[in-house]
Design goal:
The complex is a heterodimer of chains A (about 375) and B (about 300). With about 375 residues, chain A is an alpha+beta fold. Chain A folds into two domains: about 260 residues, Zn peptidases (Aminopeptidase), CATH 3.40.630; about 110 residues, Alpha-Beta Plaits. Chain A has eleven helices and 18 strands. Chain A has an eight-stranded mixed β-sheet, sandwiched between helices. A four-stranded antiparallel β-sheet of chain A has the order 4-5-18-17, with no helix packed on it. The N and C termini of chain A lie close together (about 5 Å). Chain B contains ten helices and 14 strands. In chain B, the strands form four sheets. Chain B has a seven-stranded mixed β-sheet, with helices on both faces. In chain B, strands 7-6-11 form a three-stranded mixed β-sheet, with no helix packed on it. In chain B, strand 6 and strand 7 form a beta hairpin. The radius of gyration of chain B is 19 Å and the shape is globular. The two termini of chain B are about 35 Å apart. Chains A and B meet through helix 3 and strand 4 of A and helix 2, helix 3 and strand 7 of B.
Chain lengths: ~375, ~300
C-alpha cells in the first residue's frame, strides 16, 4: 500500500475550498429533492440528473435499460474505473408535498438526506472537480441507481453491475447522513411482508374475534418468541404495520413489514423457515388467509476492516477530524460485495428525523463530508488503496 | 447559454428584485437557485436584491447568508416620507438597482425554478419592441402543505377580468394580470407611477398600455406557481385597493366620468350570535414616476 501522507497534505484546506460551491450544491439538492421519486418511478428525477451530467460536459452519460442514470467523467487512463453510487429512489409517495425549506443552516424536506443530498453530491462532483482542475487517472462512473429501496431490492444497481462495460476497481456509495458512517460489510438479510385477510365468507355474527389485526397480532407474538442467538448477532425488525379502515369496522386485512438481519446466513435462513411455519400454523388455526411474501435477500460479506480501502477511508476521515462510525449495511453495498468489488458507504452530513416528511440536514458539515468523499476518490485513484 | 450570449451582445444588465415581508420560509431557496443557476453557472443576472418592508422574522438574515444584497425599503431614498407596501419596494428598486432590466419575483413561491427569471427576461433580450413581460401559470393553491390541483386567481376572475372586459377589453389578453412576476425595461419603469399597495400590477398594465400600446407586452408561461392561499376577507381588501387604483386611472383617462369613492372597506364578522362590522381604511397611495424624483435623475444622469 502506497504511503498516504502526501495525499493527506492535499486534503488540508479542502473543506474550506469547497464552501464556494455552496449555492451550486444546494440548488442541485433542492431541485432534485423536489422531484418525487418513489421506488420504480424515478424517471423524472433521473432525467434531471442526466441533464446535469450533460451540462457538466460528461459526453458518455445515458439512462440504461433499468432506468439508472449514468455519467462518466473520463480519466487519463480509462482502462479502469471508480464507481460512485447514490440511490435515486425515496420512500415517499409522489402525492406527498416535496417542497424543500432552506434556512440559514439547515434544509428540511422529505428524503433530503435519503438520498437527495447523495444525488446532489453525485451531480455536483464533476462541476467541482473541473473547477478545481482535478484530473483523475481512472474513469469516474457516476451512478444514480433506481429501484433500490424496499421492494425495488437493488434492481437498478444489479442491472448496472451485470451489464456495464467498465473495469471497476473500487466503489463508494454515498448517503446523505450521518457524517462518519463507514460501512464496508453487508449483513445477511431477509425482507418480507405478512398479510392476513379475513375471508369474504366469514360469519360476521361471530362477535369481535373476526379481525385481521387480531390474526396478525397472533403472528407477531409468535415471531417475537423466536429464539435468536446473541452470537452471531441477529435481530428481527418489525418495521411497519398497516391494517383496517376505521374505528368501528372489523379489519379485513392487515400487513406486517419485517426484516431479519444477522451476521450469519444460516441464522437468517433458519429464521425465515420458522416465520414460514408460524404463518402456516396461524393460518390453519384461525381459518384466515395468512400469506408470507419474501421479496429481498442479502448474503453477508464485505471487505475486512484491515482492507487497504477501509484503511484509506479511515485515514482520510482522521485527517478531516471525522470520527468513523462502523456499521454494516444492507443497501447497495451488498450488491457490490456480491460482485467482489471493494466498496464502502459514506455519509455526508449530520441530520435528524430520518424517513419523516420533515427530515432535516445541517448545511455546515456537508463541506467536511464532501472533502471526505473527494479525498477517498483521490486515494482510490492514486493507487493508495491497493 | 444562448440567452447569456445575446444579453452580452446587447450590452444589457439585469437586476432581480425580490420584495419581501416575513418570507424566511421561502427566500433562502429562491436565492440559492437563482444564484447557482443564473449567476454562477449561467451568468444571466447581475445582481439579486431583497427589498424588505420590515420583516419580523429572519428573512433578511437568511437572504444575506446566501449572498443576496439586502435593503430595508425605508433606507432607500430616506429623504422621502416612508410608506409601507409591496409597491413601495418595487418602486424603490428602480432607484437602488442598476440593471437596464428589472425582474420582479415574489418571494413566497415554494416551487421556485430558474425559469421564473429566464422565462421573463428572454423576450426583452430578443425583442426590442417588448417592454413589459408578464408571467402566467396554471396556478395551484397550496393550503396547509397539501397541494391542490386547480383554482387560484380569484380576484382576477371576479374583479379584474370583468373590469377590463368592461373598460379596457384589449387588456383581457393578459392571462394573469395580477401575477407578481414580471420583467420590465428601466426606461418604462421610471415613467410610470406606482401605487404602493394592492393596485400596483393593475396600474402598470393600464399605464403601459396607455403609453406604449398592447405591443409593448409579452407573456410567458411559467407552468405552475405554488404559494399559500389567502382567506376570502384578505382578498376583499385586495379587491378594494385594486378598485381604487382602477377608478383613479379610468377617470384620468376619461373612461369613467364621475366616480367619487370612499376609502373605508366594510366587512362583517360573526361573534357568537352577533354580527359586527369591521371598518378598514385602505388608501391606495401612489408614488410618482421615478423620473420625477431628483435624486434618481442625479444618480442615473437623466
Amino acid at each position: 500500500m502506497k504511503d498516504i501522507t502526501s495525499l493527506e497534505k492535499k486534503l488540508s484546506g479542502l473543506e474550506e475550498q469547497l464552501k464556494k460551491y455552496r449555492e451550486v450544491l444546494l440548488a442541485n439538492l433542492v431541485m432534485i429533492g423536489e422531484i418525487p421519486a418513489p421506488t420504480s418511478d424515478e424517471n423524472r428525477r433521473v432525467k434531471f440528473i442526466l441533464n446535469r451530467f450533460d451540462e457538466a460536459g460528461l459526453t458518455d452519460s445515458s439512462i440504461d435499460g433499468s432506468g439508472n442514470g449514468i455519467g462518466v467523467l473520463s480519466g487519463k487512463d480509462n482502462s479502469e474505473a471508480i464507481l460512485i453510487n447514490a440511490h435515486a429512489d425515496t420512500i415517499f409517495s409522489a402525492k406527498i408535498d416535496h417542497t424543500m425549506q432552506v434556512s440559514s443552516n439547515s434544509i428540511t424536506g422529505p428524503g433530503v438526506a435519503d438520498n437527495s443530498l447523495g444525488l446532489a453530491a453525485l451531480v455536483t462532483l464533476p462541476y467541482i472537480l473541473e473547477d478545481m482542475e482535478v484530473e483523475l487517472n481512472r474513469d469516474l462512473v457516476l451512478l444514480a441507481g433506481v429501484k433500490s429501496l424496499g421492494r425495488g431490492n437493488l434492481e437498478g444497481i444489479h442491472f448496472f453491475l451485470d451489464n456495464n462495460p467498465f473495469t471497476i476497481k473500487g466503489a463508494i456509495c454515498i448517503e446523505g447522513m450521518q457524517l462518519g458512517r463507514l460501512s464496508y460489510s453487508s449483513i445477511g438479510m431477509l425482507r418480507g411482508e405478512i398479510t392476513c385477510r379475513v375471508p369474504e365468507s366469514y360469519d360476521w355474527s361471530r362477535f369481535g374475534d373476526a379481525s385481521a389485526i387480531l390474526t396478525l397480532n397472533e403472528v407477531i407474538n409468535k415471531i417475537n418468541d423466536i429464539h435468536l442467538p446473541k452470537r452471531p448477532r441477529t435481530s428481527i425488525v418489525m418495521g411497519s404495520i398497516v391494517g383496517g379502515t376505521s374505528f368501528n369496522t372489523i379489519a379485513r386485512d392487515a400487513t406486517l413489514g419485517f426484516e431479519v438481519r444477522s451476521e450469519s446466513q444460516e441464522v437468517v435462513e433458519r429464521a425465515g423457515e420458522t416465520i414460514n411455519d408460524i404463518v402456516l400454523e396461524v393460518s390453519s388455526k384461525t381459518g384466515d388467509q395468512v400469506e408470507l411474501d419474501i421479496f429481498a435477500k442479502r448474503t453477508p460479506g464485505g471487505i475486512p476492516y484491515s482492507h487497504p480501502l477501509t484503511k484509506c477511508a479511515r485515514s482520510v476521515m482522521e485527517t478531516l477530524d471525522i470520527e468513523p462510525r462502523l456499521a454494516p449495511s444492507t443497501s447497495e453495498l451488498s450488491a457490490l460485495i456480491d460482485k467482489n468489488i471493494p466498496a464502502l458507504t459514506l455519509g455526508l452530513t449530520m441530520g435528524e428525523r430520518t424517513s419523516k416528511t420533515n427530515e432535516t440536514i445541517q448545511i455546515e458539515p456537508i463541506y467536511k463530508g464532501l472533502a471526505q468523499l473527494i479525498g477517498t476518490i483521490l486515494a482510490v485513484d492514486g493507487g493508495y488503496c491497493e | 447559454m444562448k440567452l447569456v450570449e445575446a444579453k452580452k451582445k446587447k450590452n444589457l444588465t439585469i437586476s432581480l428584485c425580490l420584495p419581501t415581508l416575513n418570507e424566511e420560509k421561502t427566500i433562502g431557496k429562491e436565492i440559492i437557485i437563482f444564484r447557482s443557476e443564473l449567476m454562477e453557472r449561467y451568468p444571466l443576472i447581475d445582481e439579486i436584491a431583497v427589498i424588505d418592508s420590515g420583516s419580523e422574522d429572519n428573512t433578511l438574515e437568511v437572504a444575506k447568508n446566501y449572498g443576496a444584497d439586502t435593503y430595508l425599503a425605508s433606507d432607500i431614498l430616506p429623504n422621502l416620507e416612508p410608506k409601507r407596501g409591496k409597491g413601495e419596494n418595487l418602486w424603490k428598486a428602480i432607484y437602488q438597482l442598476k440593471g437596464d432590466i428589472i425582474v420582479y419575483v415574489d418571494a413566497d413561491i415554494s416551487n421556485i425554478h430558474p425559469r421564473f427569471v429566464y422565462g421573463l427576461v428572454a423576450p426583452l433580450i430578443h425583442r426590442e419592441e417588448v417592454k413589459y413581460v408578464k408571467a402566467f401559470y396554471d396556478r395551484p393553491l397550496a393550503f396547509s402543505g397539501n397541494v391542490r390541483a386547480s383554482g387560484g386567481g380569484r380576484v382576477t376572475e371576479i374583479l379584474v377580468r370583468p373590469l377590463f372586459s368592461l373598460f379596457f377589453p384589449d387588456l383581457t389578453a393578459m392571462i394573469q394580470p395580477l401575477s407578481g412576476e414580471y420583467a420590465v425595461r428601466r426606461e418604462v419603469l421610471e415613467q410610470i407611477a406606482f401605487p404602493i399597495g394592492y393596485g400596483v400590477e393593475t396600474s402598470h398594465l393600464i399605464d403601459v398600455y396607455h403609453k406604449y400600446g398592447l405591443e409593448a407586452f409579452a407573456q410567458t408561461d411559467l407552468d405552475k406557481r405554488v404559494h399559500e392561499n389567502k382567506p376570502t376577507q384578505a382578498l376583499g381588501k385586495m379587491a378594494f385597493g385594486i378598485l381604487q387604483t382602477f377608478i383613479k386611472r379610468a377617470r384620468a383617462l376619461g373612461v369613467i366620468e364621475k366616480a367619487e369613492h370612499e376609502t373605508i372597506l366594510r366587512q362583517f364578522q360573526a361573534r357568537q350570535d352577533q354580527y359586527e362590522q369591521n371598518l378598514i381604511e385602505i388608501v391606495e397611495e401612489e408614488r410618482p414616476p421615478m423620473i420625477e424624483i431628483e435624486e434618481y435623475r442625479k444618480k442615473f444622469k437623466k
